[in-house]
TrEMBL record:
Gene3D superfamilies: Divalent-metal-dependent TIM barrel enzymes (3.20.20.150). Residues 55-273 form the Xylose isomerase-like TIM barrel domain. Coiled coil: none annotated. This is Xylose isomerase. InterPro entries: IolE/XylAMocC-like (IPR050312), TAT_signal (IPR006311), Xyl_isomerase-like_sf (IPR036237), Xyl_isomerase-like_TIM-brl (IPR013022). The keyword Protein biosynthesis does not apply. PROSITE patterns: TAT (PS51318). GO terms for molecular function: isomerase activity. Residues 1-29 form the signal peptide. Keywords: Isomerase, Signal. Pfam families: AP_endonuc_2.
């Protein structure tokens, strides 16, 4: 089975994530659309990217979140204008994308960031998201401080281009360095207007934390939610939303505090047909959470 981390290492990409909605009141007001992180369908996309996008729309989704873009490969083998046309054909939008930023964060690769900004704008994205931090970039508190500085600089560049920058978590950010976690450093040492956070709710819960407490401590920073459920028998596995052990109804009650604007479903492993799975998760989110 291909894991996210092994895939990223093999492909030289950085990605991740999912999203879910706010409290009933806020969800209906601010998060009418349900999106999917296309990493969910990473095994199917290389076979028939255009067909996959069509099936995502058929499952009910109105938004997609991309991963793996490069200037050379484009979006899943399509250059931005072609990908944008495909989305429009299926009444889909792509408000956000995961872009591999290790070389920017670690080496200051400005050209790579610029290429991401250009690609994002061509498909009318609103968010550029750092999906992952390579292990070499996160060995100490000072490392996280340097990362925070680079995220802020990326936030400035995105703002100048009319975009919003955001950071997506896993569980490693919650490791403590002294009295602070890496995640706390990133939150405290970045400008709330320049750097938003895409909270991956599964990874927060797996790290032993309560997402609602994060929202209360950092109101308005979590404009994107990655929503994936935790398998009841094996917490290391995902399952369809509403079938696992995460109490999403309770989490959604804090949507207004979090400031969520985009709900993004993600799943990294399947016990059923992937397209049946994403349709089931969509239905649960729409009928029970927003």
């Amino acid at each position: 089975m291909t894991t996210r981390r092994s895939f990223l290492q093999q492909a030289g990409l950085l990605t991740a994530g999912i999203l879910i909605a706010p409290s009933c009141m806020v969800a209906k007001a601010d998060t009418k659309n349900i999106g999917i992180q296309l990493y969910t369908l990473r095994e199917e996309l290389p076979k028939d990217a255009k067909g996959v996008i069509g099936k995502v729309a058929q499952a009910g989704y109105s938004e997609v979140e991309t991963f793996g873009y490069s200037k050379e490969r484009g979006f899943f083998g399509m250059q931005p204008k072609e990908f944008a046309a495909l989305l429009k054909q299926h009444n889909l939008t792509a408000p956000s994308g995961h872009f591999g930023l290790d070389s920017y964060i670690g080496e200051g690769n400005e050209e790579e960031l610029k290429s991401y900004i250009d690609g994002a704008k061509e498909v009318d994205m609103k968010y550029i998201i750092a999906p992952y931090l390579g292990q070499q970039l996160r060995q100490s508190a000072s490392d996280y401080q340097r990362v925070a500085e680079r995220l802020s600089q990326a936030g400035e560049a995105c703002k100048a281009a009319g975009l919003q920058f955001a950071y997506h978590n896993h569980d490693f950010e919650f490791q403590k360095f002294g009295d602070k976690t890496g995640y706390e450093i990133l939150l405290s040492e970045t400008d709330p207007e320049l750097v938003k956070f895409e909270v991956d709710l599964y990874w927060v819960v797996r790290a032993g934390l309560d997402p609602v407490e994060l929202f209360k401590k950092n109101p308005g920073r979590y404009e994107l939610w990655h929503v994936k459920d935790m398998d009841k028998a094996d917490p290391k596995l995902n399952t369809e939303i509403g079938s696992g052990s995460i109490n999403y109804k309770q989490i959604f009650e804090s949507a207004k505090v979090a400031g969520v604007k985009h709900i993004i479903v993600e799943q990294e492993n399947f016990a059923m047909d992937p397209f049946q799975s994403i349709a089931q998760s969509y239905t649960y989110v729409k009928e029970n959470l927003i």
